[in-house]
Design goal:
Blueprint (H helix, E strand, L loop, with lengths): L9 H13 L1 H14 L5 H27 L7 E5 L2 E6 L14 H24 L6 H24 L7 H5 L11 H19 L20 H26 L7 H27 L4 H18 L5 H21 L4 H20 L5 H30 L6 H6 L1 H6 L17
Antiparallel strand pairs: 1-2
Helix pairs in contact: 1-4, 1-8, 2-3, 2-4, 2-8, 3-4, 3-5, 4-5, 4-7, 4-8, 4-12, 5-7, 5-13, 7-12, 7-13, 8-9, 8-10, 9-10, 9-11, 10-11, 10-12, 11-12, 12-13
Length: about 425
C-alpha cells in the first residue's frame, strides 16, 4: 500500500483537512479513558500527563521523527538485499524545513502523522496509571515519536518495505493499514506491555495470596464518555487515512465510516453479552474495552471490508477482549490496542480481495512482535536506568496528584486513606 503521488483535487484536499480537524477527538477520548480508569488520587496527574506526552511527542516528531517518516521524497534510505530494495526510512529534511512548499498530499500526510503519534503515545500512558512518573512518560513519548513511530509510519504508509511487499514479492497490495492499526495501536499496545514489565503492576494488584485483585477505575462516566468522543476521532482517522494512503474514491468514504461504526457497535454488543452471561450483569468497564477493541480493529480493515464483514470482525473482537482482560490480566492498552490491532491486521488480509494479502499482513505482524517489540523493550529498559519509570512507594500511596502536582483533582473529597494498601 504505497502512498499515492497523484495531486489531490481541491475537493479531496478540503475533505481530508476537515476530517483531520476531527481526529484529535480520538486523542481527547483516550485521555478521558486513561483518567477514568485510574485512581481518583492520580486523576489530575493523568490528564496533565496526557497533555505532556502529546506535547513531547509533537516536538520530537517535528524536530527529528518526521525526517524518517517522510513520504514526499519518494526515495528513502534503501538497503539492497537478495536482489530487492528494502526502503527502511525516509529522507526528509530535518526540522520540517521546506514543508511549506511540499505537495498538498504530503502536507496532509504529515498532519495525519502528527495526530497519529499523539494517539500512539497515550496508549502506554494508560498502562502506567497511578505509578508512572511524568518525566519518564514524557521521555518515553520522545523515544516513540523520534524513532519507532516514524519508522513504522514510513514502512506502512509511504514507500517503505512493508507497503512494497506487493510490488516486490507479489504479496497482495502490500500491507493494508490505512487507519494505523500497526503504527498507532499495536505500537502503543506493545509499548504498554514494555512499561508494565519494567514498572511492575500497581501496588495491591497482586496480594501475597497470589490472586489478582480487581482495581476498578474511579469514574466510569469518564471512561464511557471518552469512548463516545474517541469514536468520532476514529471515524476521521479511518476515512482520512483511506483517502490519503489508499487514494480511494470519495464515494467509498461513507462505507468506510459505516464499517468503523459497525465494528464498534458489534464489539460492544458482544462484550455486553459475554459479561452478562459470565457475571449476571454487564460490566461497564469491560463493555468500554469492547467498544474500543472494535474501533481499533476497524483501523486496519474498514477500507477493505463490507459492512457485514465489519460486523463479524467487530463481534469477534468484542468476544475475545473481555476474555483477554479477565484471564490474561491484559489491560486496555495491551488487550485492546495490541491484540485488537493484530486481529484487525489479520482480518484485513482475510477479507481483502488480493491474492497473497494474508501473508503480507502476517509479515507485518511478525515484524511488530519479533523485531519492533524487543527493540522497544530494550529502549525503555535503558531509559528506565536514567529516568526511573516508577514513583516511590510513598508517592504511590498518597497518589500522584499530591506527589507530583502538590494538589488533588478533587480537593473537596477524601480521595485516599493511609491504610489503603494494607
Amino acid at each position: 500500500m504505497s502512498v499515492s503521488t497523484a495531486p489531490l483535487t481541491e475537493t479531496s484536499f478540503a475533505l481530508a483537512l476537515g476530517l483531520l480537524m476531527l481526529a484529535p477527538l480520538a486523542v481527547a477520548g483516550m485521555a478521558l479513558i486513561n483518567t477514568g480508569l485510574g485512581r481518583s488520587r492520580s486523576a489530575a496527574q493523568s490528564i496533565l500527563g496526557s497533555m505532556l506526552m502529546v506535547a513531547a511527542a509533537a516536538l520530537a516528531f517535528a524536530l527529528l521523527g518526521a525526517t524518517f517518516a517522510d513520504s514526499a521524497s519518494g526515495t528513502g534510505h534503501v538497503i539492497h538485499l537478495a536482489g530487492k530494495q528494502w526502503n527502511w526510512a525516509g529522507t526528509g529534511t530535518i526540522g520540517l524545513s521546506g514543508f511549506a512548499t511540499a505537495p498538498a498530499r504530503a502536507q496532509l500526510g504529515l498532519l495525519f502523522q502528527f495526530l497519529a503519534v499523539a494517539l500512539a503515545v497515550l496508549i502506554p500512558w494508560g498502562s502506567g496509571a497511578d505509578r508512572w512518573r511524568l518525566p519518564a512518560g514524557a521521555a518515553a513519548a520522545v523515544v516513540l515519536a523520534a524513532i519507532f513511530f516514524p519508522l513504522l509510519a514510513h514502512w506502512s504508509w509511504s514507500t517503505g518495505w512493508l507497503a512494497q511487499l506487493g510490488a516486490n514479492f507479489g504479496l497482495g497490495a502490500g500491507l493494508l493499514d490505512a487507519g494505523g492499526a500497526s503504527a498507532i495501536h499495536v505500537l502503543g499496545g506493545l509499548s504498554a506491555l514494555a512499561v508494565v514489565w519494567i514498572a511492575g503492576p500497581r501496588r495491591g494488584k497482586f496480594p501475597r495470596e497470589g490472586l489478582s485483585t480487581a482495581m476498578p477505575g474511579h469514574n466510569s462516566i469518564y471512561v464511557l464518555f471518552g469512548c463516545a468522543v474517541a469514536a468520532m476521532g476514529w471515524l476521521a482517522f479511518n476515512t482520512a487515512g483511506a483517502l490519503l494512503w489508499c487514494d480511494v474514491a470519495l464515494s467509498t468514504l461513507p462505507v468506510i465510516a459505516i464499517n468503523t461504526w459497525l465494528a464498534a457497535v458489534a464489539a460492544l454488543a458482544a462484550t455486553y453479552t459475554v459479561t452478562r452471561v459470565r457475571f449476571g450483569k454487564p460490566d461497564a468497564s469491560l463493555c468500554a474495552n469492547g467498544w474500543l477493541a472494535g474501533l481499533v480493529t476497524s483501523s486496519a480493515c474498514a477500507a477493505v471490508v463490507t459492512p457485514v464483514q465489519a460486523l463479524l470482525i467487530g463481534f469477534v473482537a468484542g468476544i475475545i477482549t473481555p476474555l483477554l482482560v479477565e484471564f490474561l490480566e491484559l489491560g486496555v492498552a495491551i488487550g485492546v490496542h495490541a491484540a485488537g490491532g493484530i486481529w484487525g491486521l489479520f482480518a484485513a488480509g482475510v477479507f481483502a480481495p488480493h491474492s497473497g494479502q494474508v501473508l503480507a499482513q502476517f509479515v507485518a505482524i511478525a515484524t511488530l512482535l519479533g523485531f519492533v517489540f524487543p527493540l522497544i523493550y530494550l529502549a525503555f529498559w535503558l531509559l528506565n536506568r536514567f529516568v526511573p519509570f516508577r514513583v516511590d512507594a510513598d508517592g504511590e500511596r498518597i497518589g500522584l496528584d499530591l506527589h507530583e502536582l502538590g494538589g488533588n483533582a478533587y480537593p473537596e473529597f477524601v480521595v485516599h486513606r493511609d491504610d489503603s494498601y494494607r
